[in-house]
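R.M. (postdoc): so does anyone remember the format we settled on? I'll just put the structure tokens first.
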């Protein structure tokens, strides 16, 4: 993959964040450094970086796609009230029964994704006041 200034700035801005931004949110940050960049360019570069394994793309049920510059093995938890997404520690390896279930389905496992849902600390605090 060709290294471009735009891709470099997008990745730098993404890796600074732990908020798992949408493409629109990232676009607003990148424009501060590259005022002439278009939203379409940000989307295209995020797609390329995801396909090349440089970033993670988070498909969080029903909301905008989010992105994560942290490629380490970890899980995510999403607040069902405000949409905040936080990192969690990686889960242990698959158990034998889980591996057998995948094998029984005839699939070759490439990855697993488990979505954790809950209320973030801020929403728990806010709910406690009502």
């Amino acid at each position: 993959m060709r290294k471009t200034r735009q891709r470099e700035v997008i990745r730098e801005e993404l890796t600074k964040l732990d908020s798992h931004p949408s493409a629109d949110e990232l676009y607003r940050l990148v424009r501060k450094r590259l005022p002439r960049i278009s939203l379409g360019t940000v989307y295209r570069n995020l797609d390329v970086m995801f396909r090349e394994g440089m970033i993670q793309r988070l498909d969080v049920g029903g909301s905008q796609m989010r992105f994560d510059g942290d490629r380490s093995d970890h899980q995510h938890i999403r607040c069902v009230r405000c949409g905040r997404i936080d990192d969690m520690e990686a889960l242990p390896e698959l158990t034998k029964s889980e591996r057998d279930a995948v094998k029984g389905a005839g699939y070759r496992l490439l990855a697993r994704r488990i979505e954790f849902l809950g209320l973030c600390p801020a929403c728990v605090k806010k709910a406690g006041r009502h």
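R.M.: ...and that's the designed sequence above, right after the tokens. Also worth knowing: The first strand starts at residue 56 and ends at 58. The mean pLDDT is 91.
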